């Protein structure tokens, strides 16, 4: 006899468990596969049970962004704060590369949730302790976050420099020389990140 799926509040089911299952499903099959009905099937509960923990699809998507943010070690900014912001950028990039199906969501959705706001507040407090005014600290975080997300989005279609390699660039000698440069994709990311962080530091 097949057990019936649980209706209403499932014993032991939490918002955290729902979001973890949603993240696993999105990682495995992409965001298009994510629905309340499908998520209920993954958790062996009725779809309506999910609504006790996330009120709608938008809240579910916000929760996915929240899960990714939570997977990054909380940034700690000592003096100089540039070291901490570099570490944050590298950790964010690693998290995005680990969950490529979430990249379009991260790029298009601010996901202003209580947990994400608390994470941001903690980062601002740490940066203020390292000598940045709150407004400057927020601009630094947003600038670096936008840079990392943009780099990952661009790389998701293939590294643009690597795509030059098979081309006949005989008419473009400088471009040909640049395309054969010593840096791989990760080294180019770090090079650009260092330039950005150094520039942000020099504006103060």
Automatic annotation (TrEMBL):
InterPro entries, sorted: Homeodomain-like_sf (IPR009057), HTH-type_TetR-like_transc_reg (IPR050109), HTH_TetR (IPR001647), Repressor_TetR_C (IPR004111), Tet_transcr_reg_TetR (IPR003012), Tet_transcr_reg_TetR-rel_C_sf (IPR036271)
Residue ranges flagged as DNA-binding region: 35-54
One Gene Ontology molecular-function label: DNA-binding transcription factor activity
Pfam families: TetR_C_1 (PF02909), TetR_N (PF00440)
Presence of the UniProt keyword Lipid metabolism in the record: no
Domain HTH tetR-type: from-to ranges: 12-72
Domain of life assignment: Bacteria
Signal peptide, first to last residue: none
Swiss-Prot/TrEMBL GO biological process terms: negative regulation of DNA-templated transcription; response to antibiotic
Keywords noted in UniProt: DNA-binding, Repressor, Transcription, Transcription regulation
Protein name as it appears in the record: TetR family transcriptional regulator
Provenance organism: Kribbella pittospori
């Amino acid at each position: 006899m097949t057990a019936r799926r649980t209706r209403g509040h499932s014993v032991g089911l939490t918002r955290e468990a729902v979001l973890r299952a949603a993240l696993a499903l999105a990682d495995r099959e992409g965001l298009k596969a994510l629905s309340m009905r499908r998520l209920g099937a993954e958790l062996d509960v009725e779809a309506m049970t999910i609504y006790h923990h996330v009120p709608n699809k938008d809240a579910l998507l916000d929760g996915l962004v929240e899960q990714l943010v939570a997977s990054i070690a909380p940034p700690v900014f000592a003096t100089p704060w540039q070291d901490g912001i570099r570490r944050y950028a590298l950790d964010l990039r690693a998290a995005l590369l680990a969950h490529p199906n979430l990249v379009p969501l991260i790029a298009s959705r601010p996901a202003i949730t209580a947990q994400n706001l608390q994470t941001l507040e903690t980062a601002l407090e740490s940066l203020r302790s390292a000598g940045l005014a709150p407004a400057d600290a927020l601009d630094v975080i947003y600038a670096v976050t936008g840079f990392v997300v943009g780099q990952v989005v661009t790389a998701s279609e293939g590294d643009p420099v690597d795509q030059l390699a098979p081309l006949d660039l005989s008419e473009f000698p400088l471009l040909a020389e640049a395309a054969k440069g010593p840096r791989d994709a990760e080294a180019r990311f770090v090079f650009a990140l260092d330039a950005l962080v150094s520039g942000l530091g020099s504006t103060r």
